[in-house]
Amino acid sequence: MACQHHNFHASVRVARLEDVGRFTAEIRITCSDCGVPMQFMGLQPGYNADGATVSLDGLEANIGIHPRGQRPNPLQELMGYTLRQHN
Question: pTM for this structure?
């Protein structure tokens, strides 16, 4: 009988991109019952420190992250809030 994928294991690593002072969250998810990795759908492959992308095999989502207060949050961006400096 095929696995129904009821239980999952997620791992998140934070990558520090020292040459540009940025950070990304690298996310992988597998089925805990059978070990099959899950693919992320709807993301473009590549790298974007200000957005979300996926690895070429679709198995790792990469999301740009910032310490709170260094960049406008999504609500502030909708309201037209800007910062004068950021790294």
Answer: 0.76
